[in-house]
Amino acid sequence: MECWPMVGTLPWQHLPTDDPAKLAAIFDAARHWALRVDTAQAQMADASREVSESTDWLQMSRTRSGVYIPREVA
Predict the structure, then answer these.
(1) CB count in 10 Å sphere of residue 4
(2) Which pTM does this prediction carry?
(3) CB atoms within 10 A of CB 73
(4) What span, in angstroms and rounded, lies between the C-alpha atoms of 6 and 31?
(5) Other residues' Cβ atoms within 10 Å of the Cβ of residue 29
(6) Which class for 65: exposed (0-12), middle (13-18), buried (19 or more C-beta within 10 A)?
(7) What is the pLDDT of residues 29-55, one digit of tens each?
(8) pLDDT digits (tens, 9 = 90+) for 10-20
């Protein structure tokens, strides 16, 4: 089996429950979802690392000490 309908589409919904194409489409969607989540997590980790390395945060904390921002009631 080389192709199957995308999960959730009408052609997929009309497949019988025991059709191998229906199960293959589910596994394919799960694989794509896992890859998407893995890629997003890697991008977030890279962005976090870049922010962490972009500034001397210890020095930044020393220059901003004593800052008070009063709360405003809307």
Answers:
(1) 19
(2) 0.64
(3) 3
(4) 13
(5) 14
(6) exposed
(7) 999 999 999 999 999 999 999 999 999
(8) 999 999 999 99
Whole-number Å distance between alpha carbons of 65 and 2: 62
d(CA 62, CA 52): 16
Sign for the pseudo-dihedral over CA of 56, 57, 58, 61 = positive
What amino acid occupies position 15? L
Q: pLDDT value at position 61?
A: 77
User: In the numeric block, which tokens belong to residue 22?
Assistant: 């229906």
The DSSP-derived string for 4-40 is: -PPTTSHHHHTS-TT-HHHHHHHHHHHHHHHHHHHHH
